[in-house]
Specification:
Blueprint (H helix, E strand, L loop, with lengths): L1 H40 L10 H14 L1 H14 L5 H20 L7 H17 L6 H20 L7 H28 L13 H20 L1
Length: 224
């Protein structure tokens, strides 16, 4: 009787976690759909940002408009869930993206941005397809590099904007990056990517293969 009650209480306790995971998955699926439609229809590289409101809106939107960029954010979130201190990897990615924006605003040259983003997407996808968990330091370095180039690429759309719109833009992009990467981290933890046996779930390999394919397509388009 006691065991039955205990199992029932555990089942009830797992329901909120499952519902939260389904919400994260649904939100990310919607973002991927929006990004895919934006990539197919095409969006202007330069935005007309004349006030703080437009800066905030474009800041919220830019990280999810480019499918290769969005995939990279999701991948770094999933991979960060492997480690107990993986939140530091996710946070470093977001901070590196902000640094990339600052580098572009200072008119410092960071060549091969699109190629670097595509390559990092392929690397993330490869890590997701590997049977064993990735190395913490390697993942952190790739994550920082990807964030740096992504922030630099996003800043190309706001050259010439005023100081306050720029601040609003950076705030918006920070909120979106943090929300997506932490949602992906929650999904990774819920599906068991951080289990003690240090073996990544086989089902995540499908996502890794898709990420690699997307990265290869964007790499080809960047080179041509």
């Amino acid at each position: 009787m006691f065991k039955t009650q205990l199992s029932q209480s555990q089942a009830w306790g797992e329901l909120p976690t499952l519902n939260l995971m389904h919400r994260h998955i649904g939100a990310i699926a919607v973002l991927i759909l929006i990004s895919l439609l934006s990539s197919l229809s095409g969006t202007p590289d330069r935005h007309t940002i004349s006030n703080c409101w437009e800066g905030l809106l474009w800041g919220l939107a830019d990280p999810v408009i480019g499918l290769d960029c969005l995939i990279g954010i999701i991948a770094i979130g999933l991979l960060s869930s492997v480690f107990v201190r993986g939140a530091a990897i996710a946070g470093s990615f977001v901070l590196a993206a902000i640094l990339g924006i600052v580098i572009h605003l200072l008119q410092l040259n960071l060549p091969g941005t699109e190629i670097a983003i595509a390559i990092s997407t392929i690397v993330f996808g490869t890590m997701l397809m590997m049977p064993n968990q990735p190395n913490f330091i390697v993942l952190a370095l790739v994550g920082v590099s990807a964030g740096l180039f992504q922030g630099y690429a996003d800043a190309e759309s706001i050259i010439g904007a005023g100081m306050m719109p720029l601040i609003a833009y950076i705030l918006g992009i920070t909120l979106t990056l943090f929300a997506v990467v932490m949602s992906a981290r929650e999904i990774g933890g819920a599906i068991g990517m951080g289990e003690i046996n240090r073996i990544l779930p086989s089902k995540i390999s499908i996502a890794g293969f898709a990420f690699c394919a997307i990265g290869i397509v964007f790499l080809r388009n960047s080179i041509i």
